[in-house]
Design goal:
By secondary structure, the protein is α/β, with parallel strands linked by helices. It has 16 helices and five strands. The chain has two domains: about 80 residues, 434 Repressor (Amino-terminal Domain) (Orthogonal Bundle), CATH 1.10.260; about 170 residues, P-loop containing nucleotide triphosphate hydrolases (Rossmann fold, 3-Layer(aba) Sandwich). The longest helix has 18 residues.
């Protein structure tokens, strides 16, 4: 493309536009800047930017055409594990046209059949949400009021790995961090029947770990406005993962948008921007006592 020219949106293939949008959504869900993802994937930031704009490599279109000719999903051609058996394919086809509510009902029924049913009245309380929502502040106070142990999952992860979260990711990569995260959740659940657990904001990026929290804990999504998130994190002197971005607020909003559908799976939702800390604490405790009968006894 010549300098000063802008890409022709009309000429972009819908598949490449969809690929770019999904890439942006996945990047936001994982809390990664474009620069960070480009570095992790060992590709140029410019190439990634073009892909997200819908100007991806034309070879993707060739794969799409091949899949159409074979009358199979592109995922099956690429070797997605969920396309490797007849039962998986039949299940995918059964759910393909269903709305989110129907899929959720099917997921819960499947979890129950497999012995992983949700324990909505669990006295293990897991707080989820982005940094700056109030998980540590409200979590510690709630634990003190209930006489429960308060667990910061990040500290458990660091204890397991023997180094800080940033060092885990720098030395061993995100996949290793997710393995430590999952093990820390398993350990906390196996060791505690009563607890308040504050989780890292990105825990929803790991379906296995998040599913375990949904199954074994009463989950609470602490949410806040993007402005409050930013102000609280800045007050803590911590701008990860937005530190490398000159558009921190836009990145923060993208992360919230990318994770919102997952956070919304929690049993309870509490907006900590809607009222002062004291009111938020009382609303949180009241909601939990209504959900978990043992707390109000």
């Amino acid at each position: 493309m010549m300098p000063g020219m802008t890409p022709n949106v009309k000429n972009r293939h819908p598949l490449l536009q969809s690929l770019g949008e999904r890439t942006r959504q996945l990047r936001a869900r994982r809390g990664m800047t474009r620069k960070a993802l480009a570095a992790a994937a060992d590709i140029s930031e410019r190439h990634l930017a073009n892909l997200e704009l819908g100007d991806g490599n034309v070879s993707v279109l060739l794969l799409h055409q091949l899949a159409q000719a074979l009358q199979c999903p592109l995922a099956e051609l690429l070797g997605d594990p969920t396309t490797q058996s007849a039962e998986w394919l039949l299940l995918r086809e059964l759910l393909r046209q269903a709305d989110d509510a129907t899929v959720r009902t099917a997921r819960l029924a499947a979890a129950q059949a497999l012995g992983h049913g949700s324990d909505e009245a669990s006295t293990r309380i897991a707080l989820i949400g982005l940094r700056g929502a109030g998980k540590s502040t409200l979590g510690q106070r709630l634990a003190n009021a209930l006489g429960y142990p308060f667990i910061e999952l990040s500290q458990r992860i660091e204890a397991l790995a023997g180094c800080s979260v940033s060092e885990i990711q720098a030395l061993y990569g995100v996949s290793a961090y997710r393995r430590y995260e999952h093990r820390a959740i398993e350990d906390a659940i196996s060791q505690q029947t009563h607890m308040v657990l504050a989780t890292p904001g990105g825990v929803v990026s790991n379906p296995a770990s998040f599913g375990l929290l949904l199954d074994k804990c009463t989950t609470v999504w602490l949410r806040a406005s993007p402005e409050d998130h930013m102000a609280r994190v800045t007050a803590q002197g911590d701008l990860r993962p937005m530190a490398a971005s000159q558009e921190a607020m836009e990145d923060l909003k993208a992360i919230l948008a990318g994770r919102e559908a997952f956070y919304a799976q929690a049993n309870l939702h509490l907006d900590t921007s809607a009222q002062p800390l004291e009111a938020s604490f009382h609303q949180l405790r009241q909601a939990l006592e209504q959900t978990i009968p043992q707390l109000g006894a």
